[in-house]
Amino acid sequence: MEILGYLSAIIIGLVMGLIGGGGSILSVPIFVYVFGFDAVTATALSLFVVGVTSSVGSVGFIRQGQINYRTAFTFGIPSILGVLFSRRLVLPHLPHYIINRWGITLTKDMFLLLLFSILMLIASVKMIQKNERPRLRKYDEVNYTLLVSQGLLVGIITGLIGAGGGFLIVPALVMLLGLTMKRAVATSLFIISMNSLLGFLSTMKMVKHDWGFLLVFSALSVLGIFIGLGLSKKMDGRKLKPLFGWIVLAMGLFIIIKEIFLKQQF
């Protein structure tokens, strides 16, 4: 099983290189169900892996001049505030038992995983849908209030469940600002790297880390993103989104079934 987990690290990077996000959607379930980490630790490890991988992926786009820095910081700063809010104020104060009455038991770990699975289902629907809204034309007015509020929302999600939010960021940049897909992916990776690494650093002392394992897993993920970025030059990542969406949908349903139905039997 662990070999499968390490191989999946390459897939995480591959997906991020192709579609500009989606790494955390795979990494959190892998850390929980393959390597046996609790949900809080899994989200922290996911933030590190996704942060390192997206940072490395951003380097090439920086050299190419593909990152829209004004957008990155307009979206990214509120997003960082959302991450810090979740990691420092919300997560540490969640009780071990969210619900423990009327024959219903909902622990903190179960709550986070179920919240994560709901996010996976939403992400899968967005990925499977083929109809996309057209990009803004140059003379359309940019709604910066909406952009900032969406950045804050992505940050809260990132901090709470370790999801980088690439599947939310890329469509937002394309539809709200009219960026091309390539510039949106590049800017998304830059934003994800800031969010994820700061989210990890903000709670680094609150969870235990096996640095050897974490560095090996991250190195494999970085290898994957190089492969993904190479493939992205030859194929359109948007064409792969529906397939990845079905995989995410299946994983989300698996988490819900396991956490709600299977655990209640033991």
UniProtKB/TrEMBL annotation:
Record localization: Cell membrane; Membrane
Keywords: Cell membrane, Membrane, Transmembrane, Transmembrane helix
Stored Pfam families: TauE
UniProt keyword annotation of DNA-binding present: no
Transmembrane segments: 7-34, 40-62, 69-90, 110-128, 152-178, 184-204, 211-231, 243-262
Membrane topology, from the record: Multi-pass membrane protein
InterPro entries in the record: TM_pro_TauE-like (IPR002781), TSUP/Inactive_protease-like (IPR051598)
PANTHER family per UniProt: MEMBRANE TRANSPORTER PROTEIN MJ0441-RELATED (PTHR43701), MEMBRANE TRANSPORTER PROTEIN YJNA-RELATED (PTHR43701:SF2)
Family the UniProt entry places it in: Belongs to the 4-toluene sulfonate uptake permease (TSUP) (TC 2.A.102) family.
Record's protein name: Probable membrane transporter protein
